[in-house]
Amino acid sequence: MLNKYIIVTGGAGFIGSHACKALQQAGFVPVTFDNLVTGWQDAVKFGPFERGDLLCRADIDRVFEKYTPVAVMHFAAFSQVGESMQKPGLYWQNNVMGSLNLIQAAVDHGCMDFVFSSTCATYGDQDNVVLDEHSEQHPINAYGASKQAVENILSDFGAAYGLNSVIFRYFNVAGADPDGMVGEFHQPETHLIPLILNAIDGKRDALTIFGTDYDTPDGTCIRDYVHVCDLVDAHVLGLKWLQSGHGSRVFNLGTGDGFSVRQVIDQAKHVTNRPVPVTHGARRPGDCTKLVSGSLRAKTELGWSADRSNLKQMITDAWRWHQNGGYIK
Ligand code: UDP
Question: Can you give the CATH number for the domain in which 136 is found?
């Protein structure tokens, strides 16, 4: 039988767990590699679980030896913009050194197809520019800088050893599995939509809007939200792209539509039919004014469609998951 093992780092996290479900449905066997620092063992439902840390090369080697995987999907990372500004060392160590260990191990074990989660934060603040894969990268926070560094490592390993990589630059990922098997659950929570839902059902007093004086129509930041299920579908397509020998490529994953923080709040009011308690706060260091994907590349080259990525659907799915209560450690 053809080996169908895929190492999924961060498979116990929000996006990684959804990717495992999509991989299983596509006939692969996702092997979750996760240290459970931010992930949840209860999110590992679609294949074997291997607890380990990317900063420990022996942990990584053990998993490559056990499964002889055909590819790696690398989600594991710290991903909070605000935290990355306060603790940049954490981001450079975990995201860059951990990724370097993994990439070196993949090459050493002859596993030459690699899918990587990067971010629109690598582009930085580019006033009212539509961001496509040709846009220059000038990250303004340590999170984005750490992801850009890993992109560069992949490029160098591609040139030196023939490692093939698909790099996905995510815009803002939201929503949850419509079947309710997995969803977004961080402790502490820092992302906009789950925080709005927490404010709606009284788990927090209010949602603080970080900055109301941005140069946008309503003064709040604009982001491009993409449904996690659409996002992980692109990963399966990216894996197949690599397996058909197309070689390395970068793809943005966004919809091209931008929504302000206030527009997201209004849509959450509409979906839940409940008020959202709001306070106004200072800008969060590291935040870009506007991040909107202008790319059609994933659609035209991978055949990707983002059918579920409208705000109403994303908040509806997130709300259903939210009401189920999340995971327990
Ligand atoms: N945001 C906010 N209040 C919060 C959390 C986030 O106003 O409590 C804003 C944040 O400034 C950004 C947008 O919501 O403009 C999305 O932030 P999030 O942390 O969800 O994702 P990011 O864009 O940082 O990856």
Answer: 3.40.50.720
Any domain includes 183: no
Supply 175's token pair.
């929503």
pLDDT above 80: residue 165: yes
pLDDT of 1 reads 47
Tally of domains within the chain: 2
Same-domain check for residues 26 and 101:
yes
Which residue's alpha carbon is nearest to atom 19 within ligand 1? 191
| DSSP bridge pairs for 50 | 33
- Ligand 1 atom 8 nearest Cα: 208
Residues flanking ligand 1, CB < 6 Å: 81, 172, 190-192, 195, 207-210, 221, 223, 261, 284, 287
* Residue 111 in this model has a pLDDT that exceeds 80: yes
> Ligand 1: distance of its center to the CA of 191 in Å?
6
Q: Is residue 301 part of a domain?
A: yes
